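Friendly challenge for the regulars: who can give me the structure tokens for this chain first? No prize, just bragging rights.
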Amino acid sequence: MEDFTFIPVLAETMTSSLSDFNIIQIIGFLLGILGLIFFLGAAVGMLRFPDFYTRMHAAGKGDSMSTMLMLSGFGLVTMEDFSLGSWLVFIKIMGIVLFIYLTSPTSTHVLMKAAFEDNHMPLDEKDLKKAKGKRK
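First reply, four minutes later:
Bragging rights claimed.
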């Protein structure tokens, strides 16, 4: 017969209340949720905007901000105790956030510049009216 002694221990660990979380972890969860909302906004912008440049703007800004918010939140969630291991994980995550902060806008700019040099011009008012007329 199998031994089921782990079930009460599992049930005991799963029943945690809000008081088990400290304020830093709650802020971390909120930053993670806010990052997901920014990801959703970037996805909607990618679908709704009419041309390459506005879509790249939505993707660049939304992706950078949401990734930074989510990683910052994850970094705060790992700070359950202020031990050296928690600090090391937090510093590494913040290093990744800094890397994304520096590289994402640069890559978006380079892609937009390459499209412009390839004569992929932004839409003007006449093009937008023409595209709007085709939708109806």
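Residues 22-121 form one domain. The chain has one domain: 22-121. Your move, everyone else.
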